[in-house]
Amino acid sequence: LGKCLLSPIVLAAYAYNRSLSELGPGGRGEDEPGALCQLFAFLMAFFGLAPTLLLLAMALECWLSLGHPYFYRRHLTRRLGAALGPAAAALCALFCALPLLGFGAPMQYCPGTWCFIRMAGGGPRQLGFPVLYASLMGLLVLAIVACNVSSMRHLYGMARRQPRRGAPPAAAPRMEELDHLVLLGLMTVLFTVCSLPLIIRAYMGAFAADFNENADLSALRFLSVNSIVDPWVFIIFRTSVFR
């Protein structure tokens, strides 16, 4: 959904050879982002945070189902799972709308085909939101890594309890648990590597006054790579295909 909403805006900017601030109404240039640039910045922030929150929900579910199966069976229902997605999206939308209300400032970045929250060169009111955004992302990343590492430990323990040599029915579960272990490990490393650059750039821009648009662009590219590569990793290393 994020790719489908953001890509046409970028393609339109290239087609008309104009920046996002010039392309949308109300914008006069880099210092005055228009409505289209503000919408782009909101969508970038939202689709960076909302999938992370959903990944945390999935990691928590995996950890509870493996480590605390009785609690998981008793308290986690389909109704709760169905309500969790819209609730997470609503919370992320409210949080990412704060720059539109004055806490934080959207900014057009070079080469003028993308906008995001200003991460350097502003006052405390402008830089407070990116620090809060990066802190929330950092906490989510730590929680996801902790849940996934715990789930990997449970999977490894389950695989070791299976007999190494025996009938095929006994060997099949062990192979399946090791497949899930490899998949979970790869996705955890990929997610961590792709999320950390944005968190680091937000802190450097706020506290070290390091205004570097090329570094900011690289951090946003890393964040985008995660959403592109993650599904392919899941498809390729899915149990049946990988085996």
TrEMBL record:
The chain crosses the membrane at residues 39-60, 80-101, 131-151, 181-200, 220-237. GO terms for cellular component: plasma membrane. GO terms for molecular function: prostaglandin D receptor activity. It is found in: Cell membrane. SUPFAM superfamilies: Family A G protein-coupled receptor-like (SSF81321). It comes from the Eukaryota. GO terms for biological process: inflammatory response; positive regulation of cytosolic calcium ion concentration. Keywords: Cell membrane, Disulfide bond, G-protein coupled receptor, Glycoprotein, Membrane, Receptor, Transducer, Transmembrane, Transmembrane helix. Residues 1-234 form the G-protein coupled receptors family 1 profile domain. It is a multi-pass membrane protein. Its main location: membrane. InterPro entries: GPCR_Rhodpsn, GPCR_Rhodpsn_7TM, Prostanoid_rcpt, Prostglndn_IP_rcpt. This is PD2R protein. It comes from Climacteris rufus (rufous treecreeper). The lineage of its organism: Eukaryota, Metazoa, Chordata, Craniata, Vertebrata. The gene is Ptgdr.
